[in-house]
Amino acid sequence: MALTPDDVVTKQFQHVRFKEGFDPDEVDDFLDEIVVEWRKALAENEELKAKLAAYESGEAPARAAEPAPVVEAPAPAAAAPAAAAPAASAGIIELAQRLHDEHVAEGIAQRDQLISDAKAQAASIVSEAETRGREELSKLERERTTLEGRITELRNFERDYRAQLRSYIEGKLRDLETTTTSGSQPVSAIGL
Q: 41-93 pLDDT, tens per residue?
């Protein structure tokens, strides 16, 4: 289906509910700009087609209507421009096609270059991220090992401290028991 400027003008879009969308006024204004430019391009295209058709059809009858030259030698020279006109237009079309092909090839090459650059950059970013991830994991593993060693030291310290504290308290209790059993004087008699 060929798309015409009238198709763009009459195109209706459904409004989306509960979702963000484009401002319909902005879309309409932009489509109006597109239609204006499109109509200009179509008019220019039609004008060029008309000129080409007039040139192709108008040149041959104009040459045929000219009176034949009196001298026979210049006749082939006069016939050459009439034959050269279609060849010239064919040459222009060929040149335009060649330029088109060159631009397309250049665009494809540029696209491929951009894609390869983007892939290389993506690979570099992924590699860098993986390296940083491994470094962070290694760093965290070292910190974990250090903290586990510190926890073990603190547990050993706690166990030793509790044992020493228990020994100290038990020793004081034994001293207290031996003091109370060996000396039968009550505390009030000592004067305390």
A: 889 999 999 989 888 887 644 444 444 444 444 444 444 444 555 666 677 78
Q: How many CA atoms lie within 13 A of 88 on its CB side?
A: 10
- Whole-angstrom distance, CA of residue 32 vs CA of residue 108: 32
CA 132 to the chain's CA centroid:
22
With helix as H, strand as E and coil as C, how does 114-145 read?
HHHHHHHHHHHHHHHHHHHHHHHHHHHHHHHH
CA max distance for the chain = 169
Q: What is the dihedral of CA 52, 53, 56, 59, to 10 degrees?
A: -100
Q: Residue 100 is encoded by which pair of tokens? A: 């088109």
- DSSP letter at 66? S
- Sequence-distant (≥ 6) Cβ neighbours of residue 44 within 8 angstroms: none
Q: What is the rounded distance in angstroms from the CA atom of residue 16 to the CA atom of residue 27?
A: 14
Distance (Å, whole) CA 5 – CA 52:
24
Structure tokens given for 181? 């059993």
pTM over 0.90: no
Rounded Cα distance between 101 and 96, Å, is: 9
